[in-house]
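Dear colleagues,

As part of the handover before I leave the project, I'm documenting each prediction I ran so the next person doesn't have to rerun anything. This entry is a single chain, and its sequence is reproduced below.
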Amino acid sequence: KGKILNVERARIDKVLSNEEIRAIITAIGAGIRDDFDLGNARYHKVIIMSVDAAEHVFVRTEGGVRMTEIGPFVDGLLEEHSSRPRYAPHCEKREGGDLGDVLCFDVDSNELRFRPIKGVLRHPIDEALYEIRTAYGRTVRVTASHSVFVEEDGQIGLRRGDSIHAGQRLVAPRKVTWPETAPARIDLLAVMAADPECASQVVARGPAVEAWYRARVEAEYAGRPEWSEARVSLSEDARADMAAARRASGIANAALCEAVGIRQPVTFYGWERGSARPTLTHLEAYLDAIGASREDVLARSDVGPSRLQQTWRDQYRAAPSNRVRDYVNVSELTPEDVAWFGERDDLTLTPRHHATQGLPRHLPVGEALATLLGFYVAEGSVSVRGGIRFAIGARNAVLVDDLVRSCEAVFGLTPQVYEGTGGRVAELRIVNRVAALAWGRLFGFQGARAHTKRIPDLVFELPQPAKQAFVRGYFLGDGTLAPRRLAFTTTSRELASGLSYLLSGWGVVASLASREPDGVERSIRGAPCVSRHSAWTVSVSAREDIETLRFVWEGAPGCERIEAFVASEWPTVNRRFRSL
């Protein structure tokens, strides 16, 4: 816009009254006047203008990689901590500390990579919002002053959002290299304990819980060795030799009691007769006081359980006074308690009133889980009472055996198959409260509807074979095959966007199209139905991309039609991009 103001001659208050200058000062980050520090400048480090709060961005934090909308992500950081610059009090910013990494375009390498977030900024702006739509249907909303990467004469440059015109080539990554940082397994105990609603419905059971109870009681008695220290069972000949050595030593009973740390002679008389077991510390002090050999006596004795441990052995397990149980309500566990269990696997998680319906503590992360997630995103639903449900139609019945095996591998449970009646599809169900709670809590499925489903963040961090299993599972639910195209259809914008990014991990350039609801009443199984949400279609039509995605469609019903297209020598047409 040219020269905004002659800042060399104008008063500072007049300079700072200009909104564009305030935004520039804040964006550069070096401050002004006495606060100016060039070392803090962010020039050539970040580009800060404005995009629509609903635009998606990938961030990486301690919790892993996740796709989120820019607005809620920035709002969350600013709610934790923010400040208002003195020269731009209308702005809120946060800088420094570990804010995570963001997936961004590297102009030097022409690649997408995660880079540290230097800071976030929120400020009001009075500018037009432009929607830029590419030939492949991807859109982004930016303000007039937002910078956009473009390609001109083979060079990458920046242009303002309001200067982009039809036919101009935008720079976008063809391939995203996703980090393969997913954990090998998920700790359901930690997940359940962190959610009060889940924790109140789940019980942990098993030897590990019993050991935890014992450790708590032993910690209480740590200062009372008569209860917590190991005790010695003396052989008959060892007891006789001890009594003889005591008498031969001539030591007085009072002196012996003092040396050993006991009150009455009757205590060591009991040891010599075998009616009581000394603690190891008392026995060693006793042997030293009477001049007997520790090694000789201990070689003929057994060092056994403490008094506490012996009580646990002898006491009836269900006795009211027995504080050691093999079960505990997860809601009673503190974060320190959960940490105590370490990586122990000898416990299960059960519903409160169904002790036999246990789930293993750890959920394995791999192709089996990815298959379930993919098909669930397409055809699944979950509720605490109804469990995890997968709708099985005639077109995806080919996947039933894989789904059953995957359920057994992930949950250790065999799902039940319910045949459809009255024209309804069949269902595969895992009716287990803990499984349903974990499924909804872990992957954000609880309460999700078809138009609000999204790809679980974990999927973006899976190894490549598991990512393939996810996409295949999703395709067999919501995918269609045409003679020269494969397509995925959903009513969730977020799911369609995430899938496009996921496919870019294989260098696949997918098209994205949407269809608005028409309000026309239709009939499903005789019941009236009106579309209320937009339909999004992610399609792949280039032969080389379809070949790349062979793992998705091979073996699916009707795959022979697209196989013929892939095997043909027809040239790929209508490619609307070129590689840099």
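Residues 91 and 123 are 5 Å apart (CA to CA). The two ends are 31 Å apart (CA to CA).

All the best with the project,
I.
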